[in-house]
Design goal:
5-stranded antiparallel sheet, binds zinc ion, alpha/beta, 20% strand, TIM Barrel, 463 residues, 5-stranded parallel sheet
């Protein structure tokens, strides 16, 4: 789809080099920046945003169907609930989904993300087959439902079909609840070949997600990554790693090494990789993993919701580590809240304030946003790394007269958006690849998508 070349003038914009005043942006028919002029004068006829203009935030980790399940597991079901008891309930929900349910849930989710400041998503997609575990007539049925949801809402997408083969370390047999996820390595490579042209046609990136070291044995892991990189040498690879202590203990019992340690010892991890969670690492693992330039995929609200543990952000950043944020289980869908939760976990752990700040960016929200946009963009494998030439015009304009922002200097406005907007949203407009998809806080499909989402969820929980 071609867009008309457009331009936008912002009184204040957050560029990769920091805050700039009077910024004139222009982009081409593909939605890529062709001109970024600071201290410009406002030309007549060009739309003008007076509230802060931010780069769109990439959401680097999503399991779309789990949005339909958010809020359904916040009750005590046994004397001690854990990630693993949550997973049993989530599998029960996943077992019932149809392609229509998935498309309705994902369409609403991507719309919610756009309204909440996310302009691209990495979809870690592991639900492949029909309810009885047999492949659909079109093996890509559920992948295509996700791509359609992204296209309908205007969301940028990196599709990461998930390789899932075993129920635990050492090739343990999968459980009944995992039958919709399972694929041979060859079947995965055929799926990738089928999806490659479809993704290219809608400016989507195709990558691969070996689910975890629990779910994929070493040889399959190597073969699948080799197959992916034969298709596209720059394609991203995402993997869940070291989210839970039970996973670390299982990995130690199987291999004598911790998950991140094992991964770094056996695979050529580099900038194409995203290590999702990477919560439980030793200082040595922090240092080694950071040095690979792989992205740490942090999902602070989900990690808090599931009781995973706390990522050591200062240690990671000291080692030059790159990171971004994801909404994972979608217990929260809000880029600002995700950044707030990340900073608060660090404050609680260290008993300090303003932890995620730097000499370049003493304002916490500015520091968090700069890092999360760059790291998130790297994880998508797409040109969405902020307001810079050659990148895609993915933009979020805040409302200048929102009660939390009005009358404040610009860096404080972003701090207020992240920390002090009291669960209201200050987001006014959102553009993806130069196309406006949200105006006055609303996406055009808001009402119809909401209705379809609520009916899909109602049908699923009443079954
Ligand atoms: Zn996940």
């Amino acid at each position: 789809m071609k867009t008309t070349p457009q331009s936008l003038f912002a009184s204040h914009a957050l560029l990769p080099t920091g805050w700039a005043r009077d910024v004139l942006l222009q982009w081409d028919a593909q939605g890529r920046y062709t001109q970024i002029q600071v201290n410009a004068s406002a030309p007549a006829g060009v739309p003008h945003t007076s509230g802060p203009l931010l780069p769109g935030m990439p959401n680097l980790h999503s399991h779309a169907f789990q949005r339909g399940f958010a809020g359904l597991s916040e009750f005590r079901a046994q004397s001690q609930d854990s990630f693993w008891s949550w997973r049993t309930l989530m599998y029960r929900f996943a077992a019932k989904l149809s392609p229509q349910h998935l498309e309705a849930i994902a369409t609403w989710l991507y719309l919610e993300m756009l309204e909440a400041g996310y302009t691209s998503v990495c979809e870690f997609h592991y639900l492949h087959h029909d309810r009885d575990g047999t492949p659909y007539a079109n093996d890509a049925e559920l992948s295509l439902a996700l791509l359609r949801a992204a296209q309908a809402t205007g969301m940028g997408i990196t599709l990461l079909p998930v390789l899932y083969q075993s129920g635990g370390f050492g090739g343990k047999a999968p459980t009944e609840g995992q039958k919709r996820f399972l694929r041979s390595t060859n079947s995965m490579l055929r799926l990738l070949e089928q999806l490659q042209p479809v993704c290219a046609a809608q400016n989507a990136m195709l990558g691969l997600a070996p689910h975890s070291l629990r779910a994929v044995a070493p040889q399959a892991l190597q073969d699948a990554i080799q197959g992916l990189h034969a298709l596209n040498a720059q394609a991203p690879v995402h993997i869940h790693i070291a989210e839970q202590m039970a996973e670390v203990e299982g990995c130690l019992a199987w291999s004598g090494q911790r998950p991140v340690e094992w991964l770094l010892n056996h695979l050529p991890v580099d900038h194409r990789w995203c290590l999702v969670h990477a919560t439980h690492m030793t200082p040595d693992e922090y240092q080694r993993a950071a040095a690979t330039q792989a992205v740490a995929g942090l999902c602070p609200l989900t990690e808090a919701n599931l009781g995973d543990g706390i990522f050591d952000l200062p240690l990671w950043e000291q080692g030059g580590g790159i990171w971004g944020i994801g909404s994972d289980s979608h217990i929260g869908v809000n880029a600002a809240e995700e950044l707030m939760a990340l900073e608060y976990s660090q404050r609680l752990q260290l008993q300090q304030r303003n932890v995620a700040a730097s000499a370049a960016y003493p304002h916490v929200a500015t520091h968090l946003m700069q890092r999360a946009v760059q790291g998130g963009a790297q994880a998508t494998g797409r040109a969405v790394a902020g307001i810079a030439l050659g990148q895609q015009a993915d933009l979020v304009a805040l409302q200048e007269d929102h009660f939390a922002l009005e009358g404040l200097p610009v860096a404080e406005q972003l701090d207020a958006h992240v920390f002090a907007s009291s669960r209201t949203s200050a987001i006014d407009s959102v553009w993806v690849a130069g196309q406006q998809v949200v105006a006055q806080g609303r996406h055009a499909l808001h009402l119809s998508a909401r209705q379809a989402f609520v009916s899909a969820r109602r049908a699923l929980i009443s079954e």
